[in-house]
Design a protein that fits this description.
Mean pLDDT: 87
Number of strands: 0
CATH topology of one domain: Cytochrome Bc1 Complex, Chain D, domain 2
Bound molecules: heme C
Organism: Candidatus Macondimonas diazotrophica
Keywords: Electron transport, Heme, Iron, Membrane, Metal-binding, Transmembrane, Transmembrane helix, Transport
Distance between the termini: 118 Å
Pfam family, one: Cytochrome_CBB3
Oligomer: single chain
Protein name: Cytochrome c5 family protein
Helix content: 55-70%
Radius of gyration: 37 Å
CATH architecture of one domain: Orthogonal Bundle
GO molecular function, one term: electron transfer activity
Shape: elongated
Structural class: mainly alpha
Strand content: under 5%
Number of helices: 7
Largest sheet: none
CATH class of one domain: Mainly Alpha
Order of helices and strands: HHHHHHH
Length: about 160
Amino acid sequence: MLTLVGVLGAMVAFAVFIGILAYLIGGFAHKDRPLEAREIAALEQRIAPIGEVRTSDQPPMETVDAGASAAPAEPRSGSEVVQQVCAACHSAGVLGAPKIGSKEDWQPRLAQGFDTLMDHTVNGIRTMPPKGGNPSLTEDELKAALTEMLQQSSLSP
Ligand code: HEC
């Protein structure tokens, strides 16, 4: 009898001891401690807004530098523009585009007048996108490209 009580007592004492130990370990692990500078920086980066409102007209310094180094690009030649932009549709006749090299395709188009073709090149017409879908092209570059396509189709603008 005495043994049974002793064993039970030992078990209860052990359970209490484990409980206290768990409380102490848990308490220490969760203790608040001040954040380190490195952690604060990481935290601020995580919660930073994706954009900022600028109230000045002055371009930010990085933009100024980028603008200076990206000096006005050389105008692209007609054949460059045709190769890089127009040929995507006009070499195979995608969506019914008049094919480069096909006089039959281009003759009725040119009959509208070069200026009208230029207007449709700049502003687009039906499935032909404005500026061939490349808004960075200047009017001069487009004119050179159109002239090039017409010449390659044995027509003179
Ligand atoms: C995304 C395809 C696509 C690209 C890129 C493209 N074109 Fe076209 N283009 C077309 C299609 C399609 C037509 C025929 C539109 C129609 O008549 O319905 C067309 C028609 C034209 C016409 C005839 C318009 C008319 O009035 O008959 C001209 C001129 C022309 N394109 C010039 C250009 C030039 C110059 C470029 C390059 C800067 C270019 N296109 C790039 C699809 C394209």
